[in-house]
Amino acid sequence: MSTHYFIGIRIPQQIAQQLGQARDSWELSTHKRLTPPADMHITLVFIGEDRFGELHEIAERLGKIDQASFRLQIAGVKTFGNPETPRIVYAALADNTKLMNLQQAVVQQLETLELSTDPKPFVPHITLASRWKGGSLPASWSLEEMAFWVDSFSLFEIHPQETPRYREIQTYSLKGDA
Predict the structure, then answer these.
(1) Strands 88-93 and 70-80
(2) What are the residue boundaries of the structural domains of the chain, listed by start?
(3) Which fold is adopted by the domain 4-173?
(4) Where is the motif HXTX 2 annotated in this sequence (predicted)?
(5) What is the pLDDT of residues 84-119, one digit of tens each?
(6) What number of H helices and E strands is found in the chain?
């Protein structure tokens, strides 16, 4: 099995711990995988495998992104898939122009490469649980208000059989406060 990659934002450990504790308080037994706090992130672009040997070029191009750091606000819990049997339960993020600009800057840097990036529209989120296995969803779930600064993003390598699964292979700093 070949190694897969993605570009994303690591969630600060304190926020990830709070998200994990909130999710655990829901006693969510409906999903096979509960994301460990150490693996919580926001995917900007999923790359998949490096079939064309472009990883070095990707790493170099990402270093050209020049954007200021920004603050993100968590805006509740949402799901992907059928609301009765959702594939994914996630922490949603409040609309944020700077996050969207960062994601677009990443996409633009990768445009001329031969990658097969995910064609679905970008929906910023932090996966809390995935892989529906059955049962009853909690009657309600909520998250306290949380916000955090994003001052970097990373190129990650995926190691499905390890914990944590996602290993940063290169991190890129954003410039100061804005």
Answers:
(1) antiparallel
(2) 4-173
(3) Cyclic Phosphodiesterase; Chain: A, (3.90.1140)
(4) 125-128
(5) 999 999 999 999 999 999 999 999 999 888 877 777
(6) 3, 9
Q: List the beta strands (DSSP E) in the chain.
A: 4-10, 31-34, 41-49, 70-80, 88-93, 125-132, 147-150, 152-158, 166-173
Which residues, in sequence order, are bridge partners of residue 168? Answer: 156
Written as six digits, the tokens of 157 are 């390598």
Cα distance between residue 47 and residue 8, in whole Å? 11
| pLDDT, tens digit, 9 for 90 and up, residues 10-59 | 999 999 999 999 999 998 899 999 999 999 999 999 999 998 999 999 99
Assigned token pair, 15? 């926020």
Q: And the tokens for 127? A: 């996966």
Token look-up 């529906």 returns 132
Is residue 41 flagged as an active site residue?
Answer: yes
Q: Which of 31, 41, 56, 159 is catalytic?
A: 41
Q: What is the pTM of this model?
A: 0.94
